[in-house]
## 1
Amino acid sequence: MAGVICTNAIVMGLETDLPDALPWDVIENIFLMVFLSELLMKLGTQGRKFLACGNADIVWNSFDLLIIALGLIDLVLTMLIHTSSGSTATLFRIIRLLRIMR
């Protein structure tokens, strides 16, 4: 997953420098689905322990859950409004970059 996170960071940098080069929204949604799949697998294996107080990874699990939820909200709003959400998307990208700190 660390490789996917780093690749996502590189793609975000390229998207900033070359905004018209590729269909960045599609690429971002692919990353979102990969991260969502990882989250669902964690939930499937850890069950109730995923957000349990005794779990050593509760902070990171909560962080991942928040980032993915925000990404899904951005995706849904973009689909409903049929436009790029601009500054909101930028905020979500910045928050997703924090995953690298993990």
## 2
Amino acid sequence: MQRVAALYLPVISAVDAVALGDGFELALACDIRVASETAIFGMPETTLAIIPGAGGTQRLSRLIGVSRAKELIWTGRRFSGDEAYQMGSGRQSS
């Protein structure tokens, strides 16, 4: 994920389905995230006491704030593309 985040070219992710775990972390490493209203994001591995290892926890807290990030990480709650847009972690597509 660090190699994606460090690219000198802009990296854009487009999510139209499910981005859970590493898929979500990959989207977080991108410069711009575009998601449909029906896209699903989350870190379900945290419900199994597995810590996400690709920097997603740090990137998420920088994007949406520490308090919201803690809630999503600790609960493993899944959220839609529409909710991601409202939280500020992505752009919405039509």
## 3
Amino acid sequence: GRLMRRVDWPCFKGADTRLLHLIDLHAERLKCAMGDTSLGEHPLCDMAFLLDTGVASVVGENGEELDVLSVGQCFNEQIFVGAARHRDRRLVPKTDCELRLLSRQNLRRALAEFC
């Protein structure tokens, strides 16, 4: 089989390895097909995304591509510090993607187990 490189959340760079493991345990995993628009719908829109495989576009309200994210990049991670999600942007896969999704609640659960 193919050996996959571990992809960590950039916003938790340098964190204790046990905490990173707990965050991974609490993160949901999702496979998305190219062009899937469900990532912009509730409840997924209120989560942070980490790309494990593939490429995704950050798309604006009018369908314009604002940014392109690749493996190891995040979207919506500002929710971890209490900021609002991007209401005028959504993530749309440009290729088939594998993502990790993490809500504020699941991050809190991981932190509670860590402490």
